[in-house]
Amino acid sequence: MWKDQCSVLLNASGCLDALTAPEVARSLDAFVTKTITPEPREGNPPVRIAETESGMLNSIGLANPGRERFLDVNLPRLRELGVPLWISVGGFSAGDYAETCAALEDVEAIELNLSCPNVDEAPDGAAEIVAACRAATSLPLYAKLSPAAWDIAEVARAVEAAGADGLSLVNTLRALALDERTLRPILGRGTGGYSGPALKPVALAAVYACSAAVELPLVGMGGVSSGLDAIELIAAGASAVALGTILFSDPDAPVRIRSELDAEAAARGLAHPLDARRAAHESLQIGVSCLDNTRQKTPGNRRKALLDRSPKDASIPRSW
Predict the structure, then answer these.
(1) Which end of the chain has fewer CB atoms surrounding its CB within 10 Å, N or C?
(2) Is 210 an active-site residue?
(3) What is the pLDDT along the chain (320 residues), one digit of tens a residue?
(4) How many helices (H) and strands (E) does the chain have?
């Protein structure tokens, strides 16, 4: 499971190569792989990365070695890191997703990439894909949703009913950057996935809405570059936080943000950052212990803390 009962920091899929930067991966509480598809993919044509005034566009296109090579070569090497592993799974049909899920074992969780803006999406709906994967594996399933959904809370309810154990919120937004001289798209594919600081309010809104709609643990991500960003996502309802674009410019971000997050909690009189969980929901201004949040975010559990807290919880040590 997690490194300790109150771990909260992951990386966003595709934003960190753990085999190239193992110490950065070990500074996280769990490592999320790049998305794996059944067959190898070279990805989209260059240019694949474009900086903007307030973020970054990427059009990698799910480049990966394919399921067979990942299982035979990459996964054994990742296990040597000693970090809990989340495997990001992608595909172009519900069957693609389910076959990969069925081939995985002894990993912390599976994140279903249901919303990559850089490839053609599977024609199957999110709930149908989750249901197929649920039938194929008993491992915890986290559905990664797009912030572009008109009603993300409704999508969250659908994947919960289909068997998802948690949600990852949010993926990048489709966006466009033009060359200022030619006025043509910079990226080879035209559009790409937008990430960075400007995505944070979008992520906050998605986490807030889904936290109110479903009884699932949530991983919040999007524009996190400080401890304040992280605790705001927790206040909106996240039970863990993933770091994305910041890892490209600051490989020490996990250590720094963990320290800042602890300080942000202490400044508010909280024993642990997760004690701020759902503080943004005014109707639920109830003290929640670190232990409660542990139950809420453990894959496969449902949120029980607000209903079954007992006095003994208060005496349990809270460690970072």
Answers:
(1) N
(2) no
(3) 445 545 699 999 999 999 999 999 999 999 999 999 999 999 999 999 999 998 999 999 999 999 999 999 999 999 999 999 999 999 999 999 999 999 999 999 999 999 877 666 665 799 999 999 999 999 999 999 999 988 999 999 999 999 999 999 999 999 999 999 999 999 999 999 999 999 999 999 999 999 999 999 999 999 999 999 999 999 999 999 999 999 999 999 999 999 999 999 999 999 999 999 999 996 644 444 444 444 444 444 433 433 343 333 332 222 32
(4) 12, 12
Structural tokens at position 19: 């085999």
Q: Which two tokens stand for residue 28?
A: 């996280």
- How do the domains of the chain map onto residue ranges? 9-42+60-178+191-315
Please give the CATH superfamily to which domain 9-42+60-178+191-315 belongs.
Aldolase class I (3.20.20.70)
Among 311, 241, 226, CA closest to 274: 241
Q: Which of 101, 116, 133, 210 is catalytic?
A: 116
Give the distance, in angstroms, between the CA of residue 1 and the centroid of all CA atoms in the same chain: 16
Q: Which of 15, 20, 41, 7 is nearest to 225 (CA)?
A: 15
Beta-strand pair 141-144/109-113: parallel
pTM comes to 0.87
Sheet holding 240-243, edge to edge: 9-11, 240-243, 218-221, 166-169, 141-144, 109-113, 85-89, 31-32
Are the C-beta atoms of 10 and 242 separated by less than 8 Å?
A: yes
